[in-house]
Amino acid sequence: xxxxxxxxxxxxxxxxxxxxxxxxxxxxxxxxxxxxxxxxxxxxxxxxxxxxxxxxxxxxxxxxxxxxxxxxxxxxxxxxxxxxxxxxxxxxxxxxxxxxxxxxxxxxxxxxxxxxxxxxxxxxxxxxxxxxxxxxxxxxxxxxxxxxxxxxxxxxxxxxxxxxxxxxxxxxxxxxxxxxxxxxxxxxxxxxxxxxxxxxxxxxxxxxxxxxxxxxxxxxxxxxxxxxxxxxxxxxxxxxxxxxxxxxxxxxxxxxxxxxxxxxxxxxxxxxxxxxxxxxxxxxxxxxxx
Length: 290
Prior knowledge:
The chain has 290 residues and is mainly α. The chain has helices at 2-35, 40-51, 61-69, 74-91, 94-99, 110-113, 128-143, 184-191, 197-200, 203-215, 219-229, 234-246, 254-260, 277-288, and strands at residues 101-105, 148-152. Helix 1 (2-35) packs across helix 7 and helix 10 runs parallel beside helix 12.
């Protein structure tokens, strides 16, 4: 059963990999047609498009494309991978090609806790995260000579599943650079790159950082919203974030949001449990003394 599961997952993971590279190739083609080269601004735009796929299309383009590609045979997918990666190589600047590909797998803990490549009766549990990494490393080694760096991020990834002394994982580095945000300064350091320097020069900027600490939860989601807003309505973004997160209307920056004007950035995550009307009222009383 494990062998069959690996065969099926290899097919699906190859489709996902091809979908990402096809979109990347189209991006590079468009950039070259417009500018003739890949600038630093274009690199940042590509990164932003990975963080916020709604900027490409309101439906996840990678998922839609992968579902379509999934109807192809594995041989056909691998032929397309070879062709697509060859085309990308011609479009990339030499400096970028030397650095190679950076493949980020976020929320990797989900592929540890929820997804497995084996069933009861097999030789043992094999987490899907291992399957993803191994399949993509193998494919990229076969179809391109680019260096490849994997960045695997998640909460509570068991190190025992990736023993650093084993030949397979010895070259991997374990790190935790962001901390747990249980102190204001680490969180401030994390969020500042996502806020325009022009905002931080004003009183409203320092107030924004204090408010983010007061209300912080899902900080990366807030950073994504600030990027989409381009720092036009930073306090309005935070208000929208708070309202989606807990169903609470924040009133601690009314003077700032009034100056900013209406904010149209909509959060893309779900709430963690709305407060009842009674809780809203008591919270207002505690925070604002109303």
